[in-house]
Amino acid sequence: MRVSGLFALLVASVAAGAAFAPKAFAQDALAQNGAATFNAQCKSCHTVTAANSPAGPGLKGVVGRKVAGAPGYAYSKALSGKGGVWTDASLDAYLSNPAAFAPGGKMFTRVGDARARAAVIAWLKTQK
Predict the structure, then answer these.
(1) Exposure pattern of 6-31 as b/e (b: 16+ CB <10 Å)?
(2) Strands (DSSP E) along 22-108, which ranges?
């Protein structure tokens, strides 16, 4: 391969990597914002460990986990009866309006801003 061919290959490789870098950077920034929102609004009742607190279940690995599925936490009947697993969409609905998602549930704090909810969910996905 000639030098010009190597240069073209190098330029194409760098360009391809750069095309993916902004998305990865945006996800990292979103998750960092989620950590800040979690610490401001959620941390008083929840941990991001496997341990539950008296006020709420531990949220380590919550994305993909069965709804009301943290071992040892006494969930409300409302949330226990929901079924399914925590997905981006179900977490968004729950964080948006817990009382509408599971009427009679224990959670009372909501994350009203859609961007803040997306950030919290992105951050929770990193807590495995």
Answers:
(1) eeeeeeeeeeeeeeeeeeeeeeeebb
(2) none
More confident residue, 124 or 5: 124
Where are the chain's structural domains? 26-126
Q: Confidence band (pLDDT; 50, 70, 90) for 2?
A: low
User: Do 61 and 128 form a contact (C-beta atoms < 8 A)?
Assistant: yes
CA distances from 80 to 56, 83, 85, 87 (A): 14, 7, 11, 16
* Spatial CA neighbour of 69 closest among 86, 88, 94, 87: 86
Q: Does domain 26-126 have CATH number 1.10.760.10?
A: yes
108, two tokens: 């009372």
pLDDT value for 31: 82
Contact 50, 60 (CB under 8 A): yes
Token reading at 78: 């409302």
| pTM (predicted TM-score) | 0.78
Residue 23: per-residue pLDDT: 57
